[in-house]
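Quick one, tokens below:
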């Protein structure tokens, strides 16, 4: 089976979280997953636009979905918020014919190809864990985690609302991120808060609240014995990583929990260089922990 997708990294991966994009591309190259550029794609519209101008947000999402459809490919992303926004739009456009007709009329006025509702929106994590042959994936993991205790921070936008994801993010075999940790030779740490919001969406309106949320989530993982945290989302990466030092001052506790994107840790276990994965860009240095198992 050929694994080739229209690649929609999202705005954060093109700017502040570029290391997540680098790691995704490096891992996909090793696994034979094709990521095709979407040169005309814009911001997905995310929460703010969906709340203030819902019809406009649907048209923005439809334009992105139409570009992937014209390429003849399903769309894959590495951002939970982009995943939720585009999946929600795709769900409505695929199940509400009258709405699809209205949105396509808007696209036509702008000279954009109408959307037919024929593609799927996927997370790269799902592709790696569900669609890559497990024997191929295991064979690529040449530097296993040797029992490293890893906290999987799922975030909230890849698992809710249930009606649009239809359990796609949590199969009978368990959450994708925790299955990947086990496959890499690590121990998935169970802790309270792994499926909570990271706080990104109140980052501008309530800094104290986002600092407190980040601290609670990281401390819960650390207190459960986690040595490192991984997420499937560039926005969660931003909060759990960059905000952590400030959050320590807010709650007056030292956290010091290295955090990285799942593709970065997977890349390390595959023997991809730290430079190519952007490890030096992380806010909490993971090298001391990784050195203890020969990964750095």
């Amino acid at each position: 089976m050929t694994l080739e997708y229209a690649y929609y990294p999202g705005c954060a991966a093109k700017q502040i979280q570029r290391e997540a994009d680098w790691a995704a591309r490096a891992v996909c190259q090793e696994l034979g997953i094709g990521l095709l550029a979407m040169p005309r794609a814009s911001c997905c519209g995310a929460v703010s636009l969906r709340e203030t101008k819902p019809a406009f947000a649907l048209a923005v999402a439809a334009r992105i979905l139409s570009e992937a459809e014209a390429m003849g490919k399903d769309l894959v992303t590495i951002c939970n918020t982009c995943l939720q926004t585009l999946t929600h739009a795709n769900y409505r456009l695929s199940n509400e014919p009258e709405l699809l007709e209205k949105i396509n009329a808007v696209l036509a006025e702008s000279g954009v190809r109408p959307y037919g509702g024929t593609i799927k929106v996927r997370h790269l994590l799902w592709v790696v864990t569900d669609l890559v042959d497990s024997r191929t994936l295991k064979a690529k993991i040449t530097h296993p985690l040797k029992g490293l205790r890893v906290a999987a921070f799922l975030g909230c936008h890849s698992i809710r609302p249930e009606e649009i994801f239809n359990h796609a993010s949590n199969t009978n075999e368990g959450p994708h991120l925790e299955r990947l940790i086990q496959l890499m030779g690590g121990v998935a740490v169970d802790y309270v808060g792994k499926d909570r919001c990271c706080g990104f969406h109140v980052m501008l309106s309530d800094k104290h609240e986002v600092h407190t949320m980040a601290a609670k989530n990281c401390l819960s993982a650390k207190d459960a014995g986690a040595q490192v945290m991984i997420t499937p989302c560039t926005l969660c990466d931003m909060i759990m990583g960059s905000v952590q030092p400030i959050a320590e001052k807010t709650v007056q506790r030292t956290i010091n929990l290295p955090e990285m994107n799942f593709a970065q840790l997977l890349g390390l276990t595959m023997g991809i260089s730290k430079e190519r994965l952007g490890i030096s860009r992380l806010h909490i240095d993971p090298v001391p922990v990784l050195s203890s198992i020969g990964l750095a």
